[in-house]
Write a structure and sequence with these properties.
The complex is a heterodimer of chains A (283) and B (150). Helices cover 36% and strands 25% of the residues of chain A. With 283 residues, chain A is of the alpha+beta class. Chain A folds into three domains: 47 residues, 2-Layer Sandwich (Uridine Diphospho-n-acetylenolpyruvylglucosamine Reductase, domain 2); 114 residues, 2-Layer Sandwich (Uridine Diphospho-n-acetylenolpyruvylglucosamine Reductase, domain 3); 105 residues, Enolase-like, domain 1. Chain B is elongated, with a radius of gyration of 15 Å. The chains are: A alpha+beta (283), B alpha+beta (150).
């Protein structure tokens, strides 16, 4: 690994000031699982690394009347175990519990995962289906970025220079809403998913769909919402025909690439299969 | 480039030293502190050979900067005293042995965090510790035996 300078501020204010001071040559490190690999492989060559580990306030995870507030430094393991997350968004707890291996989950963080913007990652897909909003801050201003506007391209976000992810807010779901995250792992359980699907569905007493979110991973340069598939479910009873139609629309919404986990055509077909399976479980 | 003073405990003994920012925990342990029980395998956090415990949690020492253990308690296989060790021998939980330190540190972390772990939880927890000799059955038997002995 190339030498670099390391700074480890004690407070958020200090971190934002350090970042504002030299945003172009500073790389922010949360847990470090991805960044350390990128630095070892010489793909990222920072002059300075800004470590966030001492900023305890960014670890907080809690529920309030608005929903859930997840701190950027909460680890995947902490989020999988978190009582508020398990109670209000069990599909999200399950998503974090299924990322890579226990070692990665104990080190990798929510904020690091989002800022890294790897389109094969799991948490962004479920966060997208839960209408997550990223809270980001520069030294001068704080703003809220809906998840579907956060990812710009492969490994690129809409964060501005000097901007830090503080956490994610998840609004309360409609009463009775059910969520699920399914990932297709044809090789090993600790692999990245070939494709993945998160679905959040609510129905009224008569079984008519009142709320539908479908998000897809590994299906394009960024995690995708399957908007047309969602619209196709609205106001309908989720029978076989309706579920199959939505699954086909989700497959049509993808823009996958050929890689070692499959051809683009195969991934598109698998999005259809796994969307259908996800919808059957929450319908 | 920058140098950093780090203080932590290694197998309950205090360590106080200076490291360059780019020093990895696995190199600190093996090269600076002579704890060569921790192995460096894939170097990208996948194989589990370098598994150590940081504040009780299993961590890949190849993915952690040495500066990140400042203020923590680190345990390596040299600091392990557990029924797991005899159980691995008795149950054929190893052959060539290179994955064994990582297997042991992961399994010990599991039995501390979840003394009543189910077979499925044991499998899930050990998933990222690769073994090319045993086929994992001996390892699973060894962990179950140590769990009963607790």
């Amino acid at each position: 690994m190339r030498p670099f300078d390391y700074v480890e501020p004690e407070t958020l204010e200090e971190a934002l000031a350090l970042l504002a001071d030299d945003p172009d040559d500073t790389v922010v490190m949360a847990g470090g699982t991805s960044l350390v690999i990128l630095m070892k492989q010489d793909l990222v060559r920072p002059a300075r690394v800004l470590g966030l580990r001492r900023i305890a306030e960014l670890r907080d995870v809690g529920a309030n009347s608005q929903g859930l507030a997840l701190g950027a430094l909460a680890t995947h393991g902490a989020l999988a175990r978190s009582e508020p997350v398990r109670r209000h968004a069990p599909a999200l707890a399950a998503t974090f519990a299924a990322v890579a291996t226990v070692r990665i989950r104990e080190q990798a963080t929510l904020g690091g995962n989002l800022a890294h913007a790897d389109p094969a990652q799991d948490p962004p897909v479920t966060l997208l289906a839960l209408d997550g909003v990223v809270v980001a801050k520069t030294r001068f201003a704080e703003r809220r970025i809906p998840l579907d506007a956060f990812f710009a391209d492969i490994f690129e976000t809409s964060l501005e220079p000097g901007e830090l992810v503080l956490g994610v807010e998840l609004p309360s779901l409609p009463t009775g809403a059910r969520g699920i995250y399914k990932k297709f792992l044809p090789a090993t359980l600790d692999d990245y998913a070939t494709v993945s699907v998160a679905a959040v569905i609510a129905t009224d007493a008569g079984g008519t769909c009142t709320h539908a979110r479908i998000a897809l991973g590994g299906a394009g340069p960024v995690p995708l919402r399957a908007h047309e598939a969602e619209r196709s479910l609205a106001g309908r009873r989720l029978d076989d025909v309706v579920i199959r139609e939505a699954a086909a629309l989700a497959a049509a919404a993808t823009d996958p690439i050929d890689d070692l986990r499959g051809s683009a055509d195969y991934k598109r077909a698998m999005v259809g299969v796994w969307t259908e399976r996800a919808l059957r479980e929450v319908a | 480039m920058s140098q950093h003073r780090i203080r932590f405990t290694l197998n309950d003994a205090p360590v106080d030293m200076a490291v360059p920012a780019e020093r990895l925990l696995v190199d600190l342990l093996r090269e600076d502190l002579g704890k060569t029980g921790t192995k460096d395998g894939c170097s990208v956090g996948v194989c589990g050979l370098c598994t150590v415990q940081v504040d009780g949690a299993p961590i890949s020492a190849c993915l952690l900067l040495a500066t990140q253990v400042d203020g923590t308690q680190v345990r390596t296989v040299e600091g392990l005293a557990s029924p797991l060790q005899d159980a691995f021998i008795d149950e054929g939980g190893l052959q060539c042995g290179i994955c064994t330190p990582g297997q042991l540190m992961a399994a010990d972390a599991l039995l501390r965090a979840k003394p009543d772990a189910t077979g499925a939880e044991i499998s899930d927890w050990q998933m990222g510790n690769l073994c090319r000799c045993t086929g994992y059955y001996g390892i699973a038997r060894a962990i179950a035996k140590a769990q009963e002995a607790q």
